[in-house]
Structures are given as C-alpha cells and as structure tokens.
Specification:
The protein is 48% helix and 10% strand. The chain has a three-stranded parallel β-sheet. The protein has a three-stranded antiparallel β-sheet with strand order 4-5-8. Strands 6-7 form a two-stranded antiparallel sheet. Helix 19 crosses helix 20. The protein folds into four domains: 142 residues, Rossmann fold, CATH 3.40.50; 151 residues, 3-Layer(aba) Sandwich (Rossmann fold); 55 residues; 88 residues, Arc Repressor Mutant, subunit A. It has 20 helices and twelve strands. With 468 residues, the chain is mainly alpha-helical. The model has no long low-confidence stretch (mean pLDDT 95).
Length: 468
C-alpha cells in the first residue's frame, strides 16, 4: 500500500505550533515511505475563513520546509461532491430525512434531562414512512447503529471502544443543502486516497462518528493515529500566556527552520535517546510507534539548544539565505553585498554558540558596522587613555605581522611579554576597537575576517580618538 497522508488546517488564523507539528508528523511519515503528503484547506466555515489566513498557513509550511504533493485542495470547492455522497447514503437507506425543528430538539433534550435520561437526540423520523414526510425543511442524518460498539484501532492511543448508543445520528446535510464538516472530511480523505490520518487527539471522538460514513459507503477506513496535544511548561494546554503560538512568530524571533523541525519532531515523539538529528535521520527514523500518549511540554530552553546546534552544523551559504529571509520577514535592512561577503568569510566564527539569528547577527556586528566604529558604553570604558596608549604601541607590531593567525598570536604575545602584562589586558581594547563591543568573537578571528588594512584602520582610529 502506497502511503498517503494529509494536513488539513482551517484557515481562520496563523499556523499554530500544534498544527505545525501535526503537519511535520504527516510529512515525515509520508516522505520516509516514499508516499505522498497532501495539503487540504478546510475552508467550509466561510464566515471565519480568510485568504490571509490561508496565505499565512502556506507561508508557515514553506518556512518549515514541508513541501506538499499536488495542488492545494479547497474543501469548500468540493461541496457538491459532499452533498452527492449524502444523497447516495439517503438512497441506500443508510441516512434519512429529519424534519425535527430546533425547538423540538431542545424540548426533547430538556425533557430527557428532567427524566434523567440521555440527552442524545433520537429523531422520530429515523424509521418514518416517506409517505408521511411533510413539505417542510429537513436535514439529512446518518443512521448510526444503535447497538454494539465502534472500535478505533489507533496507532497511538491503542484500542478505543465506544458504545454505539453513545453516538447520535449526526447531520450530514443541513436544511439549506450544505454539507457539514464531518461529512466533508470523510469524503475528501477517501477521494484523495488518504491511507493514514495523523491528527490531534481532540479529533478522537470524531473518528468514531466518521467511521459510520466509511462503513455505510463501503469505503476502506484509514489508519488512525491521534497524537496528544502540546502543553506549556506548567502542564496546561499551550496558550498565548506561554509565549508565541504561531509559527510565523518563531521565524521572526530568528529560530532556524531545521532546529524548529528537529524540536517539533521531538515534541511527543522519540527515537531512543537521540535529541539532535538531521532531516534525513528524522525521515528514516520516524514511525507512529514512537509517539507517546501523554501531552508533550513545550520547552524554550530545549528549542534554543537544538537551534544552536543546527546553526553550528549548517552550511554557510544556506545559513546566509535563511538570515536574508529572517531580515525580510522582520522588516530589517537587508545585507549589502559587502556585508554578505564579510558574513561568508566570518561564518566559521559566528555560528558557534549562536542559538538564534539575532544572536548571530550581534556577533557579526564587527562585520556589519561602519568605519569608523562607534563603540557602545561598555566598549568605551575599555578605551581609556592607558588602553589607547597600548593600542598605539601595539600597532607597529601588527603592521609587521604577516596576518596569519599564528603570526598575529605570536606578535601580540610578544608585545604583552615586553609590556610585562598578559594578553587579556590587550583583548578588551582590541575588541572595542575592532567591533565597538565588549563581547565579540576572538580578536584574531575578527582581524582575519576584516583583513589587515581594515583592522589597522579601526585600531588606529580607536587609539587616536579622544572619546574612544
């Protein structure tokens, strides 16, 4: 059997972090088995669905690198097909016309409540003779078996049994002829050839009701895998109070997509004790058996740790492209060609221990800043008259160096020894001169990336500037 999975978000807002993980699980499962990963936009709620939300979902998936097969399917556009299936169920006696009004349904439930009975609505029209049907508005309901059990063999939750007398005869077609979401999902999944439905466990009860449609139509039931929701660090359902919810916010905070994929994959799924892994490894390893039953807890520290590892392991050119995208979505000034060249030369010393792109760009300040360098407050303190005098005395030693790391280290070490001091006393003024910051990459890395002329120009300016 060729595997076909799908991600089916409702376009009523941004791509939620939980939705992103669901999409990732579906993508990994399909890609790891040579199958297809499909995308369906469940836009039947016309009042709440917006083109902007659809665009935000597509952008979020694109940032995460979750490519889908084929065209994006609009559920709303399949309304005629959904209604056709409802009529087919009606024709074969698996569904019926219900003429009960909202007032009658409410009265039934109120009376059942008073008598201590189940408030599950039992339509008097279920077995009514069609000859008795009035000329009035009606809905089409599915005839749910009233005895026995519906069994869901779930790949995550295990065997779930629901008594059929706990399921209502759900509406398939409203009185205005429009299909309901529950019908549309089943028809779309069948028509799209979906073999595995991997979704949040808040849909577990829906599976029992949807199986009634599969059974009545004689269709194959997909493999179910209902994954636990994501909770915040406090163990409560993830919400705005825990921080960012939309995938777009994580991109704007400067997390790399590879790190985000790695973290989301580990959020509820495990492969032994492996924490850091590549896309290729995740695709090879991912299976439904590795998904836990308990809700996963979102942990920003773990996310940052993994993102830092992915930044360090990333290809320099790919990292630059992602930084360009980060600057674009945050509305910041794009890199000039000169800055890009400098970043490319210095990436080896920039990406170590940077957990986010803002951190990496701060480390790259010495490349991105203009000359003469304007020191910040802490750096200015490192450029007192004594320190400026040290820079003046050091400059000839650097001018005579051949500008390799070994030569620069040797020249500064010899100078420090002549001065009866340690290199640490030189590092502060050099950082301030080269970057205008007190915390920077190694001074030797900065000098190598900037080159001899630019480095000496900055040191000379800092040494001779009265204000530092």
């Amino acid at each position: 059997m060729s595997v076909v999975t799908r991600f089916a978000p409702s376009p009523t807002g941004f791509l939620h972090i939980g939705g992103a993980r669901t999409a990732l699980f579906n993508w990994l499962y399909a890609r790891g088995r040579g199958g297809k990963f499909l995308l369906r936009i469940e836009d039947t709620d016309r009042a709440r669905s917006t083109p902007e939300a659809t665009a935000a979902i597509l952008q979020g998936l694109d940032w995460l690198g979750l490519d889908h097969d084929g065209d994006v399917v609009s559920q709303f556009e399949g309304a005629a097909r959904h209604a056709e299936v409802a009529q087919e169920l009606l024709a074969k006696g698996a569904a019926y016309k219900c003429f009960s009004t909202q007032e009658e349904i409410s009265a039934f439930r109120e009376k059942a409540k008073e008598e201590g009975r189940s408030t599950l609505f039992q339509s008097p029209w279920r077995d009514a003779d069609p000859a008795t049907h009035p000329d009035a508005p009606y809905v089409i309901r599915l005839k749910t078996p009233q005895e026995g059990e519906t069994v869901i063999e779930d790949q995550v939750q295990g065997r779930v049994v629901i008594r059929n007398d706990q399921l209502d005869d759900m509406i398939l077609l409203r009185s205005d002829g429009t299909p309901v979401y529950m019908l549309a999902v089943v028809v779309d999944d069948h028509d799209m050839g979906v073999t595995h439905v991997i979704r949040g466990d808040d849909h577990l009860n829906n599976a029992a009701r949807q199986m009634g449609i599969y059974s009545a139509m004689g269709w194959d039931v997909p493999v179910w895998a209902h994954i636990p929701l994501i909770h915040g660090p406090d163990g409560k359902k993830l919400s705005k109070r825990h921080g960012a919810l939309g995938v777009d916010e994580y991109q704007k905070m400067g997390y790399p997509a590879a790190g985000m994929r790695n973290y989301l994959a580990r959020l509820g799924w495990s492969h032994g004790d492996d924490e850091f892994f590549t896309d290729a490894q995740a695709t090879e390893w991912f299976d439904l058996g590795g998904i836990g039953k308990s809700p996963a807890r979102f942990d920003f520290k773990k996310l940052e740790n993994l993102c830092g590892q992915h930044i360090a392991a990333s290809d320099d050119a790919a990292l630059l492209q992602e930084i360009d995208a980060y600057l674009s979505v945050t509305g910041e000034t794009p890199l000039t060609e000169g800055q890009r060249d400098g970043m490319a030369r210095g990436m080896y010393c920039l990406k170590e221990r940077a957990k986010t792109f803002p951190e990496l760009l701060e480390k790259a300040h010495f490349i991105l800043t203009d000359t003469p360098v304007e020191p910040d407050e802490k750096a200015r303190k490192a450029l007192d008259p004594v320190s400026r005098g040290i820079l003046v005395a050091l400059t000839p030693h650097l001018q005579n160096a051949s500008w390799s790391r070994e030569e620069l280290e040797a020249a500064t070490a010899a100078f420090a020894e002549d001065q009866g001091t340690k290199f640490g006393k030189l590092a502060g003024p050099l950082r301030a001169a080269l970057a205008g910051r007190a915390v920077t990459p190694s001074v030797f890395d900065m000098m190598l990336v900037l080159g001899k002329d630019e480095s000496l120009r900055r040191i000379e300016h800092a040494a001779t500037s009265e204000t530092g």
